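Problem statement: downstream parser choked on a complex file, so we are re-checking the raw output for the NAP run. The parser issue turned out to be on our end (a line-ending mismatch), but while we're here, posting the original submission so the record is complete.
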Amino acid sequence: MPERAALVTGASSGIGLAIAHMLGEEGYGLTVASRRPEKLQGAVEELKGKGYDVEHVAGNLGDEEVIKSVVAAHRERYGRLDVLVNNAGVGIGALVGEIEAKKLDIQINTNFRSIPLFYRECLDMLEAAGAEHHKALVVNTASISGKRGEAWLSVYSATKFAVVGWTQAMHKELATKGIKSTALCPAFVDTPMSDFIKGQIAAEEMMTPQDIAESVRFLLKLSPACIIPEIQFLRPADSL
Ligand SMILES: NC(=O)c1ccc[n+]([C@@H]2O[C@H](COP(=O)([O-])OP(=O)(O)OC[C@H]3O[C@@H](n4cnc5c(N)ncnc54)[C@H](OP(=O)(O)O)[C@@H]3O)[C@@H](O)[C@H]2O)c1
């Protein structure tokens, strides 16, 4: 049984899968969760192929019961939680006059609503890890569009602002209990999510999922006295 355990959402590809690999390398037992079962299964096989301890649950994280079942499976397998990575997300572009309520709800529920529910369900395990080593860590994947509003991606952008605000609130509420919260705010990363723009921005000009995963490795190495509330990641072509 690994000495420490982590739960990563949206781990079937892209940034979440890269973070899961990094956490496996660092010796964490893993629970990975994402929406489509067959895609998640592929990621699980990849992670197990590296020799990592992996639990998995597939389902829509917009659904509170699915979130409860993910945390229950993690608790049953490991009985502790040292690192929670709230990374699942979806972007659906639309101009304001074209916004559809269903797509608005999907983005709010996946990108934001799931995060408070994961904190709530994991709180006792995070508090126990915080009391034990003062370095429980929650990483919330926001976006650079959570720092500045984006046309066409307005709803996505607003959900990511919510993630940044939530992360700040959790710092105030939980940091003195040894639970650190960090929001990751990347510009374009070469993942399936950014495929829509690859006709205009080449994949090679985007950050890699490993760039983001390495930032989380850095967070793991910090002393209990050091908290990084958010990290912005820009490409050379991006303006401040
Ligand atoms: N790529 C970028 O340029 C970029 C930039 C800034 C921030 N981000 C953020 O980074 C995070 C990871 O995205 P990515 O770029 O790595 O894209 P990705 O490879 O498409 O990963 C998205 C992950 O979220 C999961 N997911 C989406 N909706 C879900 C739902 N309702 N329930 C459960 N899981 C769900 C996906 O599973 P399925 O595939 O099965 O749906 C997948 O595992 C997201 O929060 C995204 O907003 C990305």
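For whoever reads this later: The chain is about 45% helix and 15% strand.
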